[in-house]
Each structure stands twice: as C-alpha cells, then as structure tokens.
Specification:
The protein is mainly β. It is built from no helices and seven strands. β3 and β4 form a beta hairpin.
C-alpha cells in the first residue's frame, strides 16, 4: 500500500515494514516511490523540516536517535540540519 493514510480516520497506526534512507529535497517527495511514511528515524539530531501527508510544512528540533511519529511525504533540504534520516514505511 503506497499511502497508509488513504481512507483512514485520525487514529492511524500500523507496523513498520521497512526503513528507507532519505535524501533531502525541496522539490521531490523522498520517502520511497509513492510512499507516505508513518514517521522518521533520525540518527543525528537537529532541525527537521518536512511536509506531512496533506502537504503542510512542519519544523521540529529533535535529539540524536529519535523516532518522529507523524505522516511524512517529503523531508526538505532547506532548514534541515539533522542527518541520518530514514523513513518508516508500512
């Protein structure tokens, strides 16, 4: 299933099927072809700027080895200082 949030209510959850290394991009969705991630794993903390499943931009500051649980379709280059980012996909 490419988008685990399609036709679901506000209390979405599910098992993570895989982790995909993210290459940050301001112009291209980058959490796997056709995917919406259920979250991110960040190895080295810092600022993460991302677009959620609805295209809303969010900015958060996270510590090292952090699981960010939120829908993600793109991790942006501009403003993101965290590294070692992996998308959690179902």
């Amino acid at each position: 299933m490419a988008n685990p949030f399609h036709n679901r209510g506000p209390n979405d959850n599910g098992l993570v099927h895989d982790m995909i290394e993210v290459t940050n991009s301001d112009s291209t969705d980058n959490v796997g072809t056709g995917n919406i991630a259920v979250g991110l794993y960040i190895e080295v903390g810092g600022t993460v700027v991302f677009l959620n499943k609805d295209g809303n931009e969010r900015t958060v500051v996270v510590p090292d080895n952090f699981y960010l649980t939120c829908s993600v379709k793109r991790v942006k280059s501009t403003g993101t200082t965290a590294t070692g980012i992996h998308a959690l996909v179902t």
